Amino acid sequence: MPDTNKFKIPFGPQHPALKEPESFSIALKGEKIMGVDIRLGYNHRGIEKACEERTYIQDLYLIERICGICSHSHSTCFVQAVEEIAAVEVPKRALYIRTLIAELERVHSHLLWLGVAGHEIGFDTLLMYAWRDREVVMDLLALLTGNRVNYGINTIGGVRRDISGEQIEEILKGVGILEERTKYYIEVATQETTIIKRLSGVGVVSYEDALKLDAVGPTARASGVDRDVRRDDPYAVYGELHFDVITDKHCDVYGRTVVRVKELMESYKIIRQCLKQLPDGPIAVKVPRKIPAGEAISRYEAPRGEDVHYVKSNGSEKPERVKVRAPTLANVQAVKHMLKDRFLADMPIVIAAIDPCFSCTDRLISVKGVNSKNKKIITWEALRAYGIDWYRGRGIDFTKISNDLRKRLEGI
Amino acid sequence: MLREVLGSFFKKPATNLYPAEKLEMPKNFRGKLVFYPDKCIGCKLCMKDCPTGAITINKIGEKQFEAVIELDKCIYCAQCVDSCPRKALEATKEVELAQLDAKKLKVIFSGNLQNGTKKETL
Amino acid sequence: MAGALFSILVFPGLLFVSLFGLIAEFIDRKIYARLQNRVGPPWFQTFADFLKLLGKEDIIPTEANQKMFSLAPVFALTSVVTVFLYIPLWKAEALFSFNGDIIMVLYLLTIPTLAFFICGWYSKSLFSRIGSVRCVIQLFAYEVPLFMSILASALLADTWSLRDMVVFYTRHPYYFLFNLIGFGVSLVALLGKLEKVPFDIPEAETEVVAGAFTEYSGRLLAILRLTINVEMVVGASLLGAVFFPFGLGFGPYVGFIIFIFKTLMIMAMLSLLRTIVARLRIDQMIDFCWKYLVPLSFIQLLLNLIAKGILSR
Question: Which of A25, A206, B34, B37 fits as disulfide partner to B111, beta carbons 3.0 to 4.6 Å?
């Protein structure tokens, strides 16, 4: 007789708990989770291919829009790779401004995460308070860069805008307010009973498993893995700043909360140091439009973990290949492990705890069989033909659809 | 938590009552672009650098140029402002650009052929 | 006959309690918003929501059981409105009363929960089933402390009728102080009945999309939401009548104002509790109810028994 207690529920792609579409198909028995099937790819937009058709300056803005919250991370990582290929020396003031905006973005991202985590456990008050305080940092960023997200502060060879004295005053005032509020959030996260009850013991990844599953960012640091690209492989001016890398021994969602909230305090420290040590000088060097041939890898500590960009140039104005490895791709593999033998009610907070940004994640990844020995390289034309045939086999013909659409639009 | 929550009850709410109260954008906010035809030399560097192809420069006379900016294609990155060697483009603080009529989203900046004053048509 | 019909359908029956329910939802959301430093909805929001839902199409999934799907919300609404007729509001006499009506009131209050279970179960969709099962599991947890604390209050008054209980407490005004522990317990347990945070597990938006109500739309959803609002009013009035039986001898108009004031105070306390805690998991909730609420209500029962023994001498 079939076990009527076992069934599979679809958690996504559309679900109120997920901010971005991703498919988790959960096998349930009563309230207990038996297994999870993860499918990625709902947010794939072909960005890496689109980068090859645009010049480096245009690519800067495209790469920035991979994600709304980690936009400066992607933009800086890309620019660092291009500057390495072109072998230009970026002025110190530009590097300081880049670091400043990077830390402000980290503050923004962690406050946003705090709100989202509160919402997933049903604590809407925390959501409203954290997002009210996030407005302080967004106003600061709008003052400095001209927009609340997608800052566009980078250009190849430096930054586009300078900071004035009164802007520095505003930043210090804003950071002071935020420091008060962050101390309050540390108190709430560590002492509020219902929060501790919901977050403790949930989504456990031990130290060995974190190393084996390649977790990055606060997800790994909460399991005691002491890895931070800012300290291990310093870029921008992190080599000249003093800050601590926060790790925690709890290995669960509670640990990740503590790591993120304490990282907020470290960010305020870094921002203050940056502003004090800001040197004078130019904010950009002129870089020719044609970048010489070469390739470079650049790493960056985004708020969610380690972000890796690979750029290959061939001497023309457009890059030959751009590859992006976002941190969530590394973390999402740990989700399956975290959900073993947990309850359905833990599902939203476990997914939210790795701070998923599925817009960053969906790139073209090729999965080979575990034991397969042959590999195939598929060209762009073959891939396109494959796609057209796949849809035609299901009765959808895009050529016909686009012709109909064109006829109808011309008829207007 | 309780004390904080009770305190908020008596404070002014943090919500902006948009559209009754409109917020002022900070200085140098990247909103709608504006073009000064008398400064343009027709080098078309802005067109080259635009990530979406939102700006088009047309020649309408001897050393007279007009710019057609498509507001729905523009991503308000202001790269054209930086690329222009003569500072003929500027970003304003105007952000309420929603329209019901798609034709209104194409903004043409052209000068008067006689005395070069800026004329904006929709 | 016409008088009774008027009382049942208009005042204080269906129309009055529905309007009061809608106003109560507005006040709850406004207080919730102000506590979170936001503005909150305007005064006509809940009426607009209700009217809008009435105008939308009812979509019943093909796999669902059509009859049960459509009838279950009506059962829920009818039972909560019926409860309201037995609660003494501004005089010691409720609209109808008899000896033993406290048991009937508590029984009628269970019917909405079972109706929600039927709603979810016969929708045949996965999220509805999970939500409806959680609804019933939650019933096991909060019902016992709620019943025991209300019955403890009745025990002190030595009667099973709400009217006689209210008369007893009006004669001895300070005896309500004995029941304060019971008031605390039943306030928390009432959050479970009304499915509000921390006990809004059956309807957790981020886990099961809307729990038992996932497949509902249009007029049936309007009836369900009205049921939830009326449940809040009825629960608050019941607690007000049982634990704070004041102001029942002052005549209809003053009594009415005192009744509104008492109910709004209890609803404000419910909103406050809703704001400061997160949602619990179902196993944590059952733990909490049986480990803390039930012993406290036992203590209340014992206290009342001892007090009755001492006072009757």
Answer: B37
